[in-house]
Amino acid sequence: MSGVRAVRISIESACEKQVQEVGLDGTETYLQPLSMSQNLARLAQRIDFSQGSGSEEEEAAGAEGDSQDWAGAGSSADQDDEEGSLFPHHGTFEVIKNTDIDLDKKIPEDYCPLDVQIPSDLEGSAYIKVSIQKQAPDIGDLGTVNLFKRPLPKSKPGSPHWQTKLEAAQNVLLCKEIFAQLSREAVQIKSQIPHIVVKNQIISQPFPNLQLSISLCHSSNDKKSQKSATEKQSPEDHLYVLEHNLHLLIREFHKQTLSSIMMPHPASAPFGHKRMRLSGPQAFDKNEINSLQSSEGLLEKIIKQAKHIFLRNRTAATIDSLASRIEDPQIQAHWSNINDVYESSVKVLITSQGYEQICKSIQLQLNIGVEQIRVVHRDGRVITLSHQEQELQDFLLSQMSQHQVHAVQQLAKVMGWQVLSFSNHVGLGPIESIGNASAITVASPSGDYAISVRNGPESGSKIMVQFPRNQCKDLPKNDVLQDSKWNHLRGPFKEVQWNKMEGRNFVYKMELLMSALSPCLL
Amino acid sequence: MGVTCVSQMPVAEGKSVQQTVELLTRKLEMLGAEKQGTFCVDCETYHTAASTLGSQGQAGKLMYVMHNSEYPLSCFALFENGPCLTADTNFDVLMVKLKGFFQSAKASKIETRGTRYQYCDFLVKVGTVTMGPSARGISVEVEYGPCVVASDCWSLLLEFLQSFLGSHTPGAPTVFGNRHDAVYGPADTMVQYMELFNKIRKQQQVPVAGIR
């Protein structure tokens, strides 16, 4: 290698800036390279958020102590749920350096070098309020559910304040999405009574005289709203269950758009439920296709749930009011722990105190649905009641009246008395406005006495005792019955003054009466 | 999908196709059937392309591609005595791509359109078979929903058919054939329609009911 002259090599670095255009006089215009924030945005687009374990802010603000603004392109801190959302709000936020530090004073304990700036419409806190009012307020009152002033929830100790801010902003975004979907459906869906959408409130009438209002309550933290009057929030106003269910439903909707039933799927097939792809090759007819596609929207679901909750509460109130008002017979309600959003059940027993084992023929199973109550009687009858509370009350009253007569029948069996006649619906006597009167006649073991009972829901109970002829002093003399043996037969009836009878309830009194009329054998 | 019988109703003497259809539908309505919309069954024919035929010059097979509004998301493809394929509607697009192998005989597109009646467990469809602009016949399809085995309910179907078709009641369809105990499927209905369409295609004019 020695002796050969060294060759000069000039090295030129590759053009760093791309040429955008070359002018006619030879000047080149270069494409400006991406700024730091643009570069980060480009890189962040490539990040697969579904695999991240930590929060996105850590990924976005990699370099600490950097004094530049990094535009964080992220939609939320909770990856699993917010993906699948079709809400058009992007929810971008900025991560900035916290310059709120006074170097002269001691650094506070909860100091964090990062801070977040969220868009103005996501500031503050929000919640969805669902409430039911009995009477429809004036039309002028609509849309007046105020912005409320609620102090920011205290952040958990140890969690940086930007996390609280972000969580609150995420909640606001979710509430806005829920409300947007509900109002869209309220406008699109045709129903018998149209839904009213006013400002931040949706009003619908699931039952007559009943109003369901769903409102988006959003408070921003600026000074203006803090001066406005705070609304008195009564705790009974909210239906927290429905608000919770709304959140659950929207999350379910998000999950559905990304569920394993949808993905992965063949490239040529349209998006949809897996079974829908099979509907072609398996020749599904219209009924089967309809059953696959759920056609109910969020609003319909919530209204159905609200109807059910209302019906259930009213049923409970009716039963409770009857139980407190009427002491004899007693009404017991055993509510089932397991129920559905659209169906609950309760077992209603009508008993007499002290005679629960003997008189248990009235047992009703009430299945409370969305609009109707289905009653299954122990004897197999199925009755459907509407949502009117009077119907249920009348029905229970008529059952209570029937119970008394059934109780006499059972008691007679125990006491050895013979049932001569029994009818659940007698056609004699005054007409009842609620249900029908029932009647029973029982004869004593010796046959001397008979007790006849007629009990109606409205007319109350009427008890008559039939005495043998030889005990009646005021019998007219008769030419037909000449033999004295006829005097042992039962003769006229006499009414018993039931309210003067001793005994704490009907069956007890009846037992005493029966005992009094059965002579002691000793 | 219940057991279905597809048959042809000859046109009443002295009446047009439309009038006969009207007679039939009026009979059904008097029987108590409930009108439930319309239906459409159509059929396109494809020949296997000449280029794929071997030098022996064997006759090209005919393939029929059919649609039935009862199964809106499906498409059926069948050969005359061969298998019937049930596919989704992308099959039509596939046929376009297979233009080189299957050539469509455009002139022979045949379809039947009419009303759909529900009478308890029976679904009756009375349709006018048209080829292009001209009406060529009347198709009657009766489905008995609850049963999927042909041999179990053929007599019931026959009785029902007799109640409103009278003397024009058909015999047992050939699809029931030997496999009486096999489960009936939508493909069998399409085979019946294909046979009906072929029969109508061969008839030069609209058949008229004979003088009794």
TrEMBL record, chain A:
Positions of region (Disordered): 48-90
Pfam families reported in the protein's UniProt record: Med17
Record GO cellular component, one term: core mediator complex
Molecular function per GO: transcription coregulator activity
GO BP term (any one): regulation of transcription by RNA polymerase II
Keyword annotations: Activator, Nucleus, Transcription, Transcription regulation
Role: Component of the Mediator complex, a coactivator involved in the regulated transcription of nearly all RNA polymerase II-dependent genes. Mediator functions as a bridge to convey information from gene-specific regulatory proteins to the basal RNA polymerase II transcription machinery. Mediator is recruited to promoters by direct interactions with regulatory proteins and serves as a scaffold for the assembly of a functional preinitiation complex with RNA polymerase II and the general transcription factors.
PANTHER family xref list: MEDIATOR OF RNA POLYMERASE II TRANSCRIPTION SUBUNIT 17
Family affiliation: Belongs to the Mediator complex subunit 17 family.
Subunit structure: Component of the Mediator complex, which is composed of MED1, MED4, MED6, MED7, MED8, MED9, MED10, MED11, MED12, MED13, MED13L, MED14, MED15, MED16, MED17, MED18, MED19, MED20, MED21, MED22, MED23, MED24, MED25, MED26, MED27, MED29, MED30, MED31, CCNC, CDK8 and CDC2L6/CDK11. The MED12, MED13, CCNC and CDK8 subunits form a distinct module termed the CDK8 module. Mediator containing the CDK8 module is less active than Mediator lacking this module in supporting transcriptional activation.
Name of the protein in its database record: Mediator of RNA polymerase II transcription subunit 17
Automatic annotation (TrEMBL), chain B:
Predominant cellular place of this UniProt entry's protein: nucleus
Transcription is among the record's keywords: yes
GO molecular function list: transcription coactivator activity
Alphabetized InterPro entries for the sequence: Mediator_Med20 (IPR013921)
Keyword annotations from UniProtKB, A to Z: Activator, Nucleus, Transcription, Transcription regulation
Example of a GO biological process term: regulation of transcription by RNA polymerase II
Cellular component per GO, a single term: mediator complex
Tree of life domain: Eukaryota
Compartment annotation: Nucleus
Complex formation: Component of the Mediator complex, which is composed of MED1, MED4, MED6, MED7, MED8, MED9, MED10, MED11, MED12, MED13, MED13L, MED14, MED15, MED16, MED17, MED18, MED19, MED20, MED21, MED22, MED23, MED24, MED25, MED26, MED27, MED29, MED30, MED31, CCNC, CDK8 and CDC2L6/CDK11. The MED12, MED13, CCNC and CDK8 subunits form a distinct module termed the CDK8 module. Mediator containing the CDK8 module is less active than Mediator lacking this module in supporting transcriptional activation.
Function: Component of the Mediator complex, a coactivator involved in the regulated transcription of nearly all RNA polymerase II-dependent genes. Mediator functions as a bridge to convey information from gene-specific regulatory proteins to the basal RNA polymerase II transcription machinery. Mediator is recruited to promoters by direct interactions with regulatory proteins and serves as a scaffold for the assembly of a functional preinitiation complex with RNA polymerase II and the general transcription factors.
Family (UniProt): Belongs to the Mediator complex subunit 20 family.
Name of the protein described by the UniProt record: Mediator of RNA polymerase II transcription subunit 20
Taxonomic source organism: Heterocephalus glaber
